[in-house]
């Protein structure tokens, strides 16, 4: 029933929204992690779990007395808020805390709460109360009515309508799926693969700091002699082929054999995930069938805009056909460039060549020096850019606030408040932006508290953390972002704003708790700001001279941006089709997943599949976006349409920001997603197809110059 996830009309009076049960961090006043007083020590997670279960139990007892329907919905939402606070805090702690004791305590807390959730989700008294509230829709607000409907649907998607035996099976499958997803991720972290390269001269010097040196013995002989007179040590590097390191090798290493070795190794491990993925596919399929669905894809897509996998697959296949001619042209251009550079007119293009040669082509054609670009994006200035953005769009400030002792989990963390001069604080965002050992390896926004109304004068403010992994050579050095990292920062900030600007009555719909195929729209929309000179000129400054980034350099960046747009779009279609096929209807006899992936790559991309590689066993989106990866493409289409129709003409105006807040951000998931989109950009942004909704591709294809 409970979803564990992870823009305001000005008020006419001076009432400040305040946070209940959350300490906003007064300097000197000790608290625990994220402002929760229980979390002063690892053992505090036990008390945090126990209190959440106790409070939820009290609310369950209250609901069992069948109070008024509005009170039922309010109490149900408080249960959800109580449980999610523990689960979300535990997840953030597991992924970012440097202390293993905290990490292990958080993991244990997550498992205990997962067990308790099974108890809640199979509580027939709660289910009956929610059904009663939904039937009393005339007594509820529109949002409360929508909440009641979604709670009832969530109960039923959890299997409460099944027999006790089948419900036990569903709960066991759910637990098994949770454990398989953890195992898949842990295997990637534990076995990233490696290759040993000798000598060190085969690796570009500016990458040397990324690798651990290794040595091997070599026999030396005097010139003209066959007698070995001494042994010497030859230095090399052990290259760990995790995603981040592999990308650097593929982009910067001229030695094709090194690129090939790293590509094959990085796309062949961890071998143990073959079995894990097969079990995950089987478990999800069995779960879906017990729920009366043909496939897990049917089960997952039905609540979303698309409604069915057939709609999704049709959309993806049509997009694949549209993109293919241009993608083939780009492939030929890259192949010819390789032949020119290596002096071999018969050289073939291989997958380990793509990043290296496309980067070279972008830089040479557009005269883009990545080192020069990064000089204009020191991280502190990029944060200034976020401040400029929210002040221009929303009339708000984004500033650092002090944390109480115990509130932070690492010295690098800073806490920001989004503050409006008339409305007060709108929410809080922790920034944990630097890479470190043992930390979550990617970039993501983590929920801590969802927004919800407590009373007529009290509002629980949203709290979340934005986590990135920007690297620095030395602790004291200025961290400079390459432009793709700037884009990632703005992408994640779009997610954060979706939560911070939400003002829903119930946390069940707070911020990013929307239909899956709408959730990525705000993040994709805010990527556009990372490319717009009207914003960049206001914060991008050279780290040593203070010079504003030249418009010519930004124009060059923009020229390089879409040089291989068809290739990139084709890749995203391929990823989405893999996701749909793996979790779609299953054949009667077992299939070879690696062979299916290879066939899809040959059919839907211009690139060869390398035998023996198994890229999909590191594709973590199969875990959290199972049967939902298509939502990235939906989001790109929605964002392109909104940017062109609403933002592009005057992207930094208060009127643009007000429209985005009022028509989209403040509603979170409390309004129908199709209505939200039409309210923002007009009815042309979507169309009905096969009983589901698909986005208009016109703006995106025109933007990428791919319209046929």
UniProtKB/TrEMBL annotation:
GO terms for cellular component: mitochondrion. CDD domains: M3A_MIP. SUPFAM superfamilies: Metalloproteases ('zincins'), catalytic domain (SSF55486). It is found in: Mitochondrion. Its cofactor is Zn(2+). Keywords: Hydrolase, Metal-binding, Metalloprotease, Mitochondrion, Protease, Transit peptide, Zinc. InterPro entries: M3A_MIP, MetalloPept_cat_dom_sf, Neurolysin/TOP_dom2, Pept_M3A_M3B, Pept_M3A_M3B_dom. GO terms for molecular function: aminopeptidase activity; metal ion binding; metalloendopeptidase activity. Pfam families: Peptidase_M3. Binds 1 zinc ion. The keyword rRNA-binding does not apply. The keyword Repeat does not apply. Gene3D superfamilies: Collagenase (Catalytic Domain), Neurolysin, domain 3. PANTHER family: MITOCHONDRIAL INTERMEDIATE PEPTIDASE, PROTEASE M3 THIMET OLIGOPEPTIDASE-RELATED. Belongs to the peptidase M3 family. This is Peptidase M3A/M3B catalytic domain-containing protein. It comes from Arabis alpina (Alpine rock-cress).
């Amino acid at each position: 029933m409970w979803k564990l996830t992870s823009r305001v009309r000005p008020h006419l009076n001076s009432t400040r929204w305040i946070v209940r049960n959350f300490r906003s961090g007064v300097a000197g006043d000790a608290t625990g992690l994220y402002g929760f007083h229980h979390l002063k020590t690892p053992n505090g997670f036990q008390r945090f779990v126990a209190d959440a279960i106790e409070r939820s139990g009290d609310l369950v007892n209250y609901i069992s007395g069948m109070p008024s329907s509005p009170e039922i919905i309010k109490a149900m939402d408080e249960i959800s808020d109580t449980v999610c606070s523990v689960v979300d805090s535990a997840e953030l702690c597991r992924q970012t805390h440097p202390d293993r004791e905290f990490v292990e305590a958080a993991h244990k807390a997550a498992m205990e709460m997962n067990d308790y959730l099974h108890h809640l989700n199979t509580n027939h008294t709660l289910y009956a109360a929610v059904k009663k509230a939904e039937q009393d829709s005339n007594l509820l607000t529109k949002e409360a009515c929508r909440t009641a409907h979604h709670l009832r649907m969530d109960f039923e998607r959890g299997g409460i309508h099944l027999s006790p035996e089948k419900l036990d099976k569903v709960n066991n499958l759910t637990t098994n799926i949770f454990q398989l997803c953890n195992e898949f991720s842990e295997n990637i972290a534990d076995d990233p693969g490696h290759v040993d390269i000798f000598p060190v001269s085969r690796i570009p010097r500016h990458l040397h700091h990324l690798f651990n040196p290794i040595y091997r013995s070599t026999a030396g002989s005097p010139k003209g002699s066959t007698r070995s007179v001494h042994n010497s040590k030859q230095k090399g590097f052990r290259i760990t082929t995790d995603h981040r390191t592999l990308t650097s090798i593929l982009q910067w290493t001229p030695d094709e054999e090194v690129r090939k070795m790293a590509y094959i190794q990085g796309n062949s491990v961890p071998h143990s995930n073959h079995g894990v993925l097969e079990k995950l596919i089987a478990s999800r399929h069995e779960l879906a069938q017990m729920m009366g669905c043909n496939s897990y894809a049917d089960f997952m897509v039905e609540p979303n805009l698309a409604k069915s996998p057939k709609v999704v697959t049709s959309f993806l296949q049509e997009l694949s056909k549209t993109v293919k001619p241009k993608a083939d042209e780009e492939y030929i251009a890259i192949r010819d460039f390789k032949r020119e550079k290596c002096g071999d007119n018969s050289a073939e293009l291989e997958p380990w060549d793509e990043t290296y040669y496309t980067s070279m082509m972008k830089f040479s054609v557009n005269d883009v020096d990545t080192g020069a670009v990064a000089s204009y994006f020191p991280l502190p200035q990029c944060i200034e850019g976020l401040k400029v953005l929210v002040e221009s769009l929303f009339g708000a400030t984004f500033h650092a606030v002090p944390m109480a002792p115990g509130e932070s989990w690492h010295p690098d963390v800073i806490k920001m408040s989004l503050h409006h001069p008339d409305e007060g604080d709108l929410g809080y965002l922790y920034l944990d932006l630097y890479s470190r050992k043992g930390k979550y390896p990617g970039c993501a926004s983590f929920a801590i508290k969802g927004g919800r109304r407590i009373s007529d004068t009290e509002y629980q403010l949203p709290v979340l953390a934005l986590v990135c992994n920007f690297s620095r050579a030395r602790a004291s050095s200025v961290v400079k972002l390459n432009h793709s990292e700037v884009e990632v920062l703005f992408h994640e900030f779009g997610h954060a704003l979706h939560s911070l600007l939400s003002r829903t009555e119930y946390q069940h719909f707070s911020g990013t708790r929307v239909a899956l195929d709408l959730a990525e729209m705000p993040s994709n929309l805010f990527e556009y700001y990372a490319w717009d000179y009207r914003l960049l000129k206001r914060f991008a400054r050279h780290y040593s001279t203070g010079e504003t980034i030249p418009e010519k350099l930004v124009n060059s960046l923009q020229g390089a941006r879409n040089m291989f747009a068809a290739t990139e779009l084709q890749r995203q279609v391929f990823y989405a089709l893999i996701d749909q096929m793996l979790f779609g209807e299953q054949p009667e006899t077992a299939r070879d997943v690696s062979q299916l992936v290879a066939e899809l790559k040959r059919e839907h991309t211009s690139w060869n599949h390398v035998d023996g590689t198994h890229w999909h066993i590191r594709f973590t989106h199969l875990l959290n976006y199972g049967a939902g990866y298509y939502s990235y493409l939906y989001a790109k289409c929605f964002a392109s349409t909104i940017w062109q129709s609403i933002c592009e003409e005057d992207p930094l105006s208060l009127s643009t920001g007000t429209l985005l807040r009022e028509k989209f951000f403040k509603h979170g998931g409390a309004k129908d997603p199709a209505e939200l989109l039409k309210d923002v950009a007009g009815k042309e942004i979507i169309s009905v197809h096969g009983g589901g909704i698909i986005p208009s591709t016109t703006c995106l294809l025109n933007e990428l110059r791919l319209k046929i």
